[in-house]
Amino acid sequence: MRVLAAMSGGVDSAVAAARAVDAGHDVVGVHLALSAKPGTLRTGARGCCTLEDSNDARRAADILGIPFYVWDFAERFTEEVIESFVGEYAAGRTPNPCVTCNEKIKFEALLEKAMALGFDAVATGHYARLSLVDGVPELRRSADEGKDQSYVLASLTPEQLRHSLFPLGDSHKSDVRDEAERRGLAVARKPDSHDICFIPDGDTKKFLERRLGERPGDLVDAETGAVLGRHTGVHGFTIGQRKGLGVEHPAADGRPRYVLSLEPVSGTVTVGAAERLAVRGIRADRAVWPGGPLDGPTECVIQVRAHGGTADAVAEVVDGEVRVQLREPLRGVAPGQVVVLYRPDPRGDLVLGSAKISGTTS
């Protein structure tokens, strides 16, 4: 197969490209330039997709002996990922930009261009297992549970999965680093990137304030309706947040307060006791089903954060909406997050589908 290896400049994508070469594929490496001003070098594990990363990817491609290109996706990244991220926060939702990037950039824009150029598949360094059974893609958790990235890949369509390769799915991160060292790849011990790539200092609130300005509103106690303070914008909060609320007057019971809901039109941030965060039902839309939609109520395990825990549930599709009833309540579930449904399986939990959370019930 002709395979386009997406090379971020990290150890995972470099080893994934190497394994694609070992498998006998005709491999070409490509680095995506996602910033209009990529001159800033990363510091430690902050950020990714910088000029330094591009150079690291090029050196890895040279060692592997494969052609290498840099494709400019900065404009599309800004529109599809950054502007979407800002817009979601302004609307009182909590987005996951890594899910959006995988969906819109790496497996829509990149795959679209790769197919137009005659490639058969795109290979990436994601930790997830992927197989085709009678032409139907099966996406599963990786062997390394601590690095599993099936959550951020669960929004990919069946057609996108049919043209994807995840060579690291059966590996553990420590083994991947050792392999990179044996291959002489300089990125073998390079730190993993963390945080949001377009917010390298990790200060999301400051980033949003620069983009959205101040939109003052009240902090309101859910129990009494009393105004506990003022804030500079709902975009500075997420459901379940405890610290940095700016509460000027302690609640009557003296207990900590958490963000319960956000109302962007009025600017109201409602806070209350921890038990009010408990969610027993989830509504979601824009569902994607790798193996086809659910057939009636289905026992499953759900996950609502990339690195969060799981919960047993029953899910079904009603009038085009995914409805999830939890066996035990979850806390801090926010509109804008993605809920991923899994079916427990000895070979690694199978992704049944994913959807964007639109609301919750307690």
From TrEMBL:
Pfam families: tRNA_Me_trans, tRNA_Me_trans_C, tRNA_Me_trans_M. ATP binds at residues 6-13, 32, 125. Residues 147-149 are annotated as: Interaction with tRNA. It is found in: Cytoplasm. One of its GO terms (biological process) is tRNA wobble position uridine thiolation. GO terms for molecular function: ATP binding; tRNA binding; tRNA-uridine 2-sulfurtransferase activity. One of its GO terms (cellular component) is cytoplasm. InterPro entries: MnmA-like, MnmA-like_C, MnmA-like_central, MnmA-like_central_sf, Rossmann-like_a/b/a_fold. It catalyses: S-sulfanyl-L-cysteinyl-[protein] + uridine(34) in tRNA + AH2 + ATP = 2-thiouridine(34) in tRNA + L-cysteinyl-[protein] + A + AMP + diphosphate + H(+). The keyword RNA-binding applies. The active site is at 101 (nucleophile), 197 (cysteine persulfide intermediate). Residues 205-272 form the tRNA-specific 2-thiouridylase MnmA-like central domain. Its EC number is 2.8.1.13. The record marks 126, 337 as: Interaction with tRNA. Keywords: ATP-binding, Cytoplasm, Disulfide bond, Nucleotide-binding, RNA-binding, Transferase, tRNA processing, tRNA-binding. The keyword Secreted does not apply. Residues 280-357 form the tRNA-specific 2-thiouridylase MnmA-like C-terminal domain. Catalyzes the 2-thiolation of uridine at the wobble position (U34) of tRNA, leading to the formation of s(2)U34. Belongs to the MnmA/TRMU family. This is tRNA-specific 2-thiouridylase MnmA. It comes from Amycolatopsis bartoniae. The gene is trmU.
